[in-house]
Amino acid sequence: MAGYDDRDGVIWMDGALVPWREANVHILTHALHYASSVFEGERAYGGKIFKSVEHSQRLKRSANMIDFEIPWSVEQIEEAKAQVMQANGLSDAYVRPVAWRGAGPDMGVASARNPVRLAIAVWEWGAYYGDAKLKGAKLDISKWKRPSPETAPSQAKAAGLYMICTMSKHAAEAKGCSDAMMFDYRGYVAEATGANMFFVKEGEVHTPKPDCFLNGITRQTVIGMLKDRGITVHERHIEPAELEGFEQCWLTGTAAEVTPVGQIGDYTFEVGALARDISAAYEKLVRE
User: Fold this and answer.
1) Residues 157, 209, 227, 284: which is the catalytic one?
2) 201 given a catalytic annotation
3) Are 34 and 111 in contact (CB under 8 A)?
4) Domain boundaries, the chain
5) What is the pTM of this model?
6) Per residue in 128-137, pLDDT tens?
């Protein structure tokens, strides 16, 4: 497959459709040096982006959290997403809006005078964890921890917060794992590098409280699905020692969708009935 910089198609960029290979920025773009960038990950099924408006609203909030304003409304972002999907002839696709501080008169930590840019790319993308939906993903345990909300704006989907995720996933892949589980700054179970986590014990579901990491849109959707089924969901701090007592585990996220987990470090989990049921129900929901 060609690199992401060398493909046919177009990318929506600052209000215009730009040929894919020409959708470039200057080397002195502020975001490249100081991570002043936010983004979203979305999936379209049958031409409809799941929870599209919620993603556009979060993109705007994320920008505000890292001190800039995206100069397009939610409605305009929605129109742009539809336009770029149609222009690329895609109905089932991954959608990536990204907003950033561009090149301008400032080239230091401060960048208030630099323009804010927005781009939206779409492409075909299959299962994020390959065949893990059948046999369960294998996770490493990262040495990096999610930071305190006093250290970084943890509820923003900001590029800078993913640096340790990249490092953690690289280390995991080097060990033959699909991903890595991360603890938070207090030592509680937090999330995977790009997905939230759920555990099952005695018919009830336990999921880490998102007080220092992103409360994913897919996570919120799955919690609603579980409650609609009358299943008790505990959103709470989870100690590492509790991993041994959980029977099932799964990940949630736009890319991950609902993916069962078979192993985290030395802890093993069955790909059980509830994990399979929720995964299948989610796949049905997003196509309704």
Assistant:
1) 157
2) no
3) yes
4) 10-123, 132-285
5) 0.95
6) 777 777 789 9
